[in-house]
Request: fold
Amino acid sequence: MLLSLTGACALLGVVAASQANASHNELVFFEAPRQLYLPSTRPKTLVQLQALGVKALRVELRWDEVAPSPNSSRRPNFNAKNPAVYRWGQYDEIVLEAERLKWPVLLTVTSGVPKWATASHKDHLTRPNAKMFEEFMTAVGLHYGNLIDMYAIWNEPNIAGWLMPQWNSNGTPASPRIYRSLYQAGYAGLIAAGMKNPKVLFGETAPFGQEHLGRGESSRREVAPLAFMREALCLNTHYRKSGSCGELKMYGYSTHPYTYPAVQGVGYRPPDYNQVTIGTLSRLSNALNLAANAHAIPAHLPILITEYGVQSKPNPRGVGLAEQAEYAADSEKIAWENPRVTSFSQYLLADEASHGGETGYRTGLETSGGGRKPFYYGFPIPLVVSRSGSGYSLWGLVRPAEGATQVRVSVQARGSNRWRSLKLVSTNSSGAWTLHSSTQGSHWRVSWRSPSGAVYTGPSIGVS
Reply:
């Protein structure tokens, strides 16, 4: 939405404006798999992401998509550590484009698994062979090397759609120990590729699930992330470690703290303490501290949010389009203000199309048909407005900015459809800003003019 900036700034009761006092700079990963993986849409998508202020990518590398004969039950005769035997295809193109743009890349190496590398040789998920995965990760490390800034092992291993089995016959979680062996193998593979201290993320866990599987319950139910973490780290419910398990080396813990249904809001706190949503990141922080005290992991590990989004309608778990932009900004503010969180993430540029009777993920900035949602305009310049005493506290970012800049804040009085300029606010070097205002209003919005002259105007935002 390209609009002209308004005229001179009116004070309109502003009490104070200041640069945001974030304790750290936060990397924001963007994931747009369908658009980036296709050569026909990749160039346009990269230009679009640049305009939106994207500066880092998350890429999921599926083992079976690049491996030889992935649908064969018999392992082909080849040197699995040799990168030349794999079909890297579009993954190479994405990584090289990111290198050209100087965008960091998080590469999550995950399933599907070649059938010949699974226990039954009949599917792409069940008990992947750790030794074969180590050989594959050696090839990954040799092929990509320093082109990748961070690696992660497996996507959402606490979900049956990514790793099987999730449960043992007695109802205890099975997937955590399978994951531990895969993580150790993946890490060892990168070491074998010549990386002395690879930056590898542990976890990548989905937010919900349960601690035990009850009789008659589906074996495809998710394992709750903190229950999964404890078992993968050989910890009991009191965070005491088995003597047979050593400390795992890792760069950070990655989480996907979605809130389902989204209408419950970003502050929703699931009653099961083993679940981790954007509003309950302290649960994960506490668990990591206890795990470090047990010498299961290094101390003071950062938390990286590596997949996240707010579902919008028509997904039955979604919120309205205007609320999506607000909830996404609220979520980012939560992450930004948490000193332990070092990355945030946006999953999907465009919504998934409906398939098999399901509406698919609707966390995108665009609809599945390419129409721009309010979130499209809110993502580059997110804004949060909350009550503070008799006034309001505002927080925002100018994502496309390359340094300190200024953003214009406008307000809409109750009962009016007119916008009035409230304040021209200076950001810090990361593009973050805060403002306290006593001016009463019903909605606020921000606008920013880039050095090239492009004007960004965000959507109308109400009070959180």
Observations:
- The domain at 54-307 is CATH 3.20.20 (TIM Barrel).
- The radius of gyration is 23 Å.
- The longest helix spans residues 175-192.
